[in-house]
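debug: dumping io for the single-chain case to check the tokenizer round-trip. Nothing else runs in this session.
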Amino acid sequence: MKAGLKTTCGIAALLVAAGAAHGQEALFKAQDTVYANEGKIGDRWMLAEGATLATPAYPAAMAARGDDVCIALGYLIRPDGTTSDFAVLKQWNSSEGEREPQEGYWQAFAQAGADALSQWRFSPRPDAPATRPTYTVATLAFTGANGTGGDIRGHCRIDDVAAVVQERKSNAYMRQSRERADMERADRASRARPAMVERPGRQPPQP
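debug: decoded output
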């Protein structure tokens, strides 16, 4: 089963069916989660013995385009050191910037990133505080044959992952509130609308 991805409001639709709902819980409902910026997990975690940080492969389906691409992929380190709940927080490509050049484009790179990060394994540091789930982000770069070069990762770097998650939570709450308000207005309108069909056998009122 492929690792689940979850995107947030304003990000291109990158959901992978397996595990998507669980990813949403990690971003929006985990109250005991510690947030750590990229490269700042060292006070709590270290690589598990024998583990390496797998790097994502360039998606074969997009090789002909050859764009340079980066994605900021949020992920959760569970108390047992495994990773899950992958979420694309930011993306860029050298062809269209943040726009998707073709259908399935962002999905391909997001899945490649999730496939790599799902192999990462960590161990709690012996002197670290109590082990708690940690949400952080990895900035992944894909170098294409027709790209522009330069600092690819710089286009997707996130300086404050907690602030980004909070913004997504606020946007999701506002969106859900608007949807509830729309449903309530539609319900009230349907209730106020007079019946269009008379009961069988009843004569319509005479003028």
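debug: round-trip ok. The beta strands are 34-35, 45-47, 69-77, 83-93, 122-124, 134-142.
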